[in-house]
Amino acid sequence: MQDFVAHPEHGIAWISGASSGIGRAMALKLADEGYKVAVTARDHEELAELQAEASDLSGSIIVLDGDVTDAEDMEHVLASIEYGHGALALAVFNAGVCLPVHAQELKLADFQQSFAVNLQGVVNCLVPTIRHMKAKGQGQIAIVSSVAGYSGLPSSAAYGATKAALINMAESLKFDLDKMGIRIQLITTGFSDTPATKNNEFPLPPLVSVEEAAEQISTGLKSRSFEITFPKRVTYMMKLVNLLPYGLYFRLINRSSGWRARPLDKHAPPVMPHPAE
After folding, report:
1. What is the pLDDT of residues 27-70, one digit of tens each?
2. How far from 94 is each of 104, 244, 270, CA to CA, in Å?
3. I need a labelling partner for 16 at 20 to 30 A (CA). Which of 48, 236, 244, 256 fits?
4. pLDDT for the residue 262
5. Residue 140's closest CA among 15, 23, 235?
6. Can you give the pLDDT at residue 53?
7. CB burial class (10 A; 0-12, 13-18, 19+) of residue 105?
8. What are phi and psi of 143, to 5 degrees?
9. What pLDDT is stored for residue 276 in this prediction?
């Protein structure tokens, strides 16, 4: 079955976590391409500002408040799209939270919130979306993951675990979705200039702007690739590093991040808020 590639004439695009960062930039990019874009987040004011900013674009923004951690909310969002605006052609599940985790001060809440937003939040969106697209016989879904899902990184025990799960989940679902006419893609980002990277605890390569990230994702959505990954100099390097034996891997990450020299009792930075807030 030929892969379905969504275009504005096919129906609505839906972006979760659209009030800031990559999600917001993607909403503007797709609206500029002519899509009616349904945007979801918990901060109504931010979404309303986004809608106003898109007023001069060829497409438009549809504000649908909702919390991805609430499965009933996501059912209502999909119902609002389906019965109020038309068929859902493209879904980009982007909402996420990055909470630094340190073994010397583990907090159950950091794992619970990370799993609820980053992993269960995607599942809460996927279930009604796949049901809707199955009935239509076509659709396109993209899930935003991260290079942190390729392998373990310092302070990333919760965030990285959720992103690794998303990678595995997208890979696994592809086998059945291919036969249903539903195209699924994985968006694996390097390090973008978003709220999640503002207080990072180790040196990062040059950050990609959210506008450049949106451009890369838009191009990837039109391609035949399963994985949309950028910047490739970072993501491909992480793929290669992940092939190293563990002894070399930990030595390299410790050296490049300066983590071994970091005092164990150094206080962690403030936790990052849900980017949809």
Report:
1. 999 999 999 999 999 999 999 999 999 999 999 999 999 999 99
2. 30, 30, 22
3. 236
4. 83
5. 15
6. 96
7. exposed
8. -115, 125
9. 37
- What is the token pair recorded at 146? 């991260």
Q: By the 8 A CB rule, do 41 and 47 touch? A: yes
Domain ranges of the chain: 8-257
Count of Cβ atoms closer than 10 Å to residue 241 Cβ: 16
CA–CA dist 215, 28 (Å, integer)? 11
Let me know how long the chain is. Answer: 277
Give pLDDT, residue 207: 75
Can you name the residues that pair with 208 across neighbouring β-strands? 192
> What number of other Cβ atoms are within 10 A of residue 245's Cβ?
8
List, for the chain, all residue ranges whose pLDDT scores fall below the cut of 70. 1-2, 191-206, 265-277
- Residues ≥6 apart with Cβ < 8 Å to 117: 68, 69, 95, 96, 97, 274
What is the C-alpha to C-alpha distance for residues 196 and 58, in angstroms, rounded to an integer? 30
| CA atoms of 4 and 233, how far apart (whole Å) | 29
Are 198 and 272 spatial neighbours (Cβ–Cβ below 8 Å)?
Answer: yes
Q: Determine how β-strand 60-63 pairs with β-strand 139-146.
A: unpaired
pTM given for the model: 0.90
Side-chain half-sphere of 38: how many Cα atoms within 13 Å?
27
Tell me the three state secondary structure of residue 153.
coil
Q: Could you tell me the CA-to-CA distances from 105 to 56, 109, 167 in Å, in that order?
A: 49, 12, 28
Q: How many CB atoms lie within 10 A of CB 98?
A: 28
Whether 183 and 225 have beta carbons less than 8 Å apart is answered as no
Structure token pair of residue 81: 């799209």
- pLDDT at position 3 is 84
Q: Distance between CA atoms of 268 and 259, rounded to whole angstroms? A: 13
